[in-house]
Amino acid sequence: MITATHYIVLASALFCIGLFGVMTARSALRVVVAVELMLNAVNLNLVTFALTSAARPAAGLGFVVLLIVVAAAEVGLALALVVALSRTSDITAIDGYATLKG
Predict the structure, then answer these.
(1) Of 32, 53, 54, 89, which is least surrounded by CB within 10 A?
(2) pTM for this entry
């Protein structure tokens, strides 16, 4: 039988994989995908806690919907920025974006 512990362990593993991806990726697109993986791990935890909670499961599911909307907006904005910067400056690695500050 699958319990809430199994879901929490799965979400922890997904979050760790996403964190590793953020720390080691050199491409901006890979960082965006890794952050999205981390947000999905948080969503899985929120759904698990909402469904195991006897008090107010709708509140946790409301947070999940809000987080999905924020994640979709983040991905759209991040991809637009990456595409715009790659068209203007031919920079593919994240280290190159630091030169655009000045």
Answers:
(1) 54
(2) 0.79
26-64 pLDDT per residue, tens: 888 888 889 989 999 998 998 888 888 777 777 778 888
What is the DSSP secondary-structure string of 91-102?
Answer: --BGGGGGGG--
Domains of the chain: 4-100 (1.10.287.3510)
The letter for the amino acid at 15 is F
On average, the pLDDT of the chain sits at: 84
- Are 54 and 10 in contact, with CB atoms under 8 Å apart? no
Cα gap 39→35, rounded to integer Å: 6
Other Cβ atoms less than 10 A from the Cβ of 2: the count is 7
Mean pLDDT of 94-102: 63
Task: Give which of 78, 83, 77, 69 is closest to 32, Cα–Cα.
Answer: 78
Closest C-alpha among 22, 51, 50 to residue 36: 22
